[in-house]
Amino acid sequence: MKHIGRCQLGGVAVFVATCASSALAEMLPLWEVGGGVAAISFPDYRGSASRRSYLLPVPVLVYRGDIFQIDREKMRGLLFKSDRAELDISISGSVPVRSDGNRVREGMPDLDPSLEIGPSLNIWLAKTESAKLALRLPLRAVIASDFRSVHSAGVLANPNLNLDLRAGQGWRVGLVAGALFADRKYHDHFYGVAPAYARPGRSAYRAAGGYSGAQFIAALSRRFEPAWVAGFVKADVLNGAAFASSPLVERRNNVSVGIAVTWVFAQSGTRVERNE
Length: 276
Fold this sequence. Notes:
Layout: H1 10-17, E1 25-29, E2 31-43, E3 51-64, E4 68-70, E5 75-81, E6 85-94, E7 114-127, E8 131-145, E9 150-157, E10 160-166, E11 171-182, H2 184-191, E12 210-224, E13 227-237, E14 253-267, E15 271-275
Antiparallel strand pairs: 1-15, 2-3, 2-14, 3-4, 4-5, 5-6, 6-7, 7-8, 8-9, 8-10, 9-11, 10-11, 11-12, 12-13, 13-14
């Protein structure tokens, strides 16, 4: 199971990520197309006391090419692969956050959606027919946009241990534990308060770069041809984070949860061998 985004990737990416992979090679369709529905509840951003709950459509697009791949975890370009490691280019992002309805951000600009892109080195620590353990080392540049202009929103890294298990009766389990690190610009994008927006109870604040806290994710999924059922729980811990003293941080712990059901409507007759 790959990483689920720092400030929520929205319904699509969260639920695609819950479909954990296994170490057993299978003959699978070259492409699949489908859709479904997801229910998700998450904070506005890590450290926020304001939550959002949504019932969202979930498109499903899977392509299992030799180099370019789209799957239920992410979109990626595979640059290098061996029995022990792989290097890919991964894409992720965050959804926009409206400041109205968020008590500590009232009167501040909305948070723009962002696109994250960069390399990830994935090292296999152990593999069996029913489990695999990997050390993943993604490093991404972040670009934010209000759809009128584009600006850099910093750089982040998320080293993590990723355990994928094939349980009984077709169930798959994904467990992730990792730390987050980012530069000053990224932290300031979410947690900085410019002097113009300071007010009683919300002092001006400029975030520092460094440690961003930890994340722990547990996901469960199963395929019932032609449907997928998946769910996840994600815990964020901000103790010791470089921005923990920001007036925009209301909680040191956050939990996000969700469940989704998707169906495959069409698939390729061509089969390819893949470890999913």
